[in-house]
Amino acid sequence: MIKTYKDLNLIFLGAPGAGKGTIANWLVVNDQFIQVSTGEILREEIKNQTKLGLEAQAIMARGDYVSDDIVNEIIKNKLQQLTSNNKHFILDGYPRTLAQVDFLESLNFTKIDYVILLNVDKNIILERLTNRRICPNCGSTYHLISQKPQIENTCDKCNHNLIQRKDDQPEVILKRLDVFNKQTKPLINTYLGKGNLIEINANQNAENVYLEIKNKLINLTNNK
């Protein structure tokens, strides 16, 4: 039973650089949601150099998406764990294809309440991603313009050297956007038809995007 907006299960949709992970983290920190990020799970596999990780590493470096079979299994296991503990979640980076939508709907142990679509202009995406730097050791994220580390090219948390992800280079970003437009945009019409899509202007700064999402979810749950 949904009592407040914190009892919802959400999907975040948006192009690379729309801020899905950043905004999801605001809801994790402030509102006790659990973020389920396929990207983070896969990067952990890459860091550990597992068989899955090595396969995913090559695919992600080209700007392509990892196969549905691999991602579906990861998501199913994670959502089973969360729902058995009565935890509410945000799916970040999943589903990306209509086949993944169908798989998600086939899971009889959970349901999605709302889909948050983060709309952002292409020029802003390029500015955000080409200036993004990450810590390969602890996973912290920085931005060379809006969120600089205290010491140049050094993580504030663990002092490790920062890197640019291969898929944050301009030519790969454009490939990722092309893949998004072909594979993921059809999902928007699907969720529009279901009546549970919420569109957000994600050209704004992260705090404003977070507050807009939170206020819309509060209004929707209060009116139920």
| Rough outline | globular
Distance between the termini: 11 Å
Question: What share of the residues does DSSP label as strand, in percent?
Answer: 5-15%
CATH topology: Rossmann fold
| Average of per-residue pLDDT values | 91
Structural class: alpha/beta
Biggest beta-sheet profile: 5 strands, parallel
The total of helices stands at: 8
- CATH class identity: Alpha Beta
> Percent of residues in helical segments?
40-55%
Assign the CATH architecture.
3-Layer(aba) Sandwich
- Major beta sheet, strand line-up: 2-3-1-4-7
Number of strands: 7
CATH superfamily grouping: P-loop containing nucleotide triphosphate hydrolases
Number of domains: 1
Q: Could you name the ranges where pLDDT drops below 50 across 5 or more consecutive residues?
A: none
Order of helices and strands: EHEHHHEHEHEEHEH
Compute the CA-based radius of gyration: 17 Å
Family: Belongs to the adenylate kinase family.
GO molecular function, one term: ATP binding
Function: Catalyzes the reversible transfer of the terminal phosphate group between ATP and AMP. Plays an important role in cellular energy homeostasis and in adenine nucleotide metabolism.
Protein name: Adenylate kinase
